[in-house]
Amino acid sequence: MSAPRRVPPGMEIQNSRREAVVGTAGCLTAFAGALAGIVLWAPHGKGGLLDGFEGASNWNVLWVGLPLMILGGVAAALAVFFLVRGDWKRALGLVAAIAVLFAIGVGVDALAGAPRPECYDPC
Asked: Considering the chain, what percentage of its residues have pLDDT values greater than 70?
């Protein structure tokens, strides 16, 4: 059994501060990714909720599209964060998660049916 490793005085505080800064940066990155997902979703969401065919709203835009965009934004931002930090395994895992979210979005969109034709005056 080996003796416990001695940490020089002050180093444990410096490491915990570094971990706190990295953790805070990761949380801010995830928050920025979520905001980016919302911003990218907004034009499509507005069209689906307010400008639907004959005034009908498509609530799937809100219940399915928005969570997918938020999760995709968070995953993309964290993938870049981990790439910058050199953590290739986590970044690759997040890229795979983005691919799955994209496939789900395409599948849900395909299952929604063919797009409705636009109706202009006179209808």
From this structure: 67
